[in-house]
Design a protein that fits this description.
alpha/beta; TIM Barrel; nine-stranded parallel beta sheet; 9 helices; 9 strands; binds pyridoxal-5'-phosphate
């Protein structure tokens, strides 16, 4: 069930200055998105293009909403994502970034990009390994029509609080090293830990919308 407006306000008011809230609405209805936008929430995250497009069309009257793509991004979905989304949190390889750059030029868009990094080898998750990112960095920063704003990371599912916090810390340090301002990290079960070590975007799904319907 969708969070109430006073509980939502409590969460919003608890966020330190400079920490933004992304409401991850995948698996939830456009009515829930509309209600949450009525509480003042403007940033929404989706992980599948096919699911996002009809919802966005239904919510077309809410021009002020900003859409963030957070799912794993397949090659053949890049054009659709570039056209439909303002932010991409899941750019996880140099070939993918090159494709985003080329298509963004064709579409005359400049999406805001987070590079997804995995700080531990995790076969279930996408993401640059840190060393690969550092090796690719000169190529990445030369790409046109991508506005590189930060790093994104998801800890392995089996991690405990201490391990997650260490990983979030590594993400913040790498972002600082690369002079990137934003860190997209922290979800419903670990957002407070992420904020303590420098998250600037937290991505909350179930805490706001309740259990997913799909
Ligand atoms: C689903 C999802 C979230 C939200 O997860 P919750 O645990 O429900 O808060 C955040 N980030 C990404 C990338 C997701 O896919």
């Amino acid at each position: 069930m969708l969070i109430g407006s006073s509980e939502f306000k409590l969460i919003k008011d608890s966020l330190p200055l400079g920490v933004r809230l992304l409401a991850v609405s995948k698996g939830h209805s456009q009515e829930s998105i509309r209600k949450l936008s009525g509480f003042g929430q403007l940033d929404f995250g989706e992980s599948r293009l096919q699911e996002a497009v009809p919802k966005k069309n239904d919510l077309n009257d809410l021009k002020q909403l900003r859409w963030h793509f957070v799912g794993s991004l397949q090659k053949n979905k890049v054009r659709g994502v570039v056209k439909e989304f303002d932010f991409i949190h899941s750019a996880d390889s140099l070939p993918l970034l090159e494709r985003i750059s080329r298509i963004s030029q064709e579409e005359q868009k400049t999406p805001n990009i987070f590079l997804q990094v995995k700080f531990r080898d995790d076969p279930k998750k996408g993401g640059f390994l840190k060393q690969d990112l550092l090796n690719s960095w000169p190529n990445i920063i030369s790409l046109k029509n991508i506005n590189l704003i930060g790093l994104m990371t998801i800890p392995p599912i089996a991690f405990n609080a201490r391990q997650r916090k260490d990983l979030f810390c590594e993400c913040r340090n790498l972002a600082n090293h690369l002079e990137l301002k934003e860190c997209s990290m922290g979800m419903s079960n670990d957002w407070q830990e992420a904020i303590e070590v420098g998250a600037t975007w937290i991505r909350l799904g179930s805490l706001l919308f309740g259990k997913r319907q799909t």
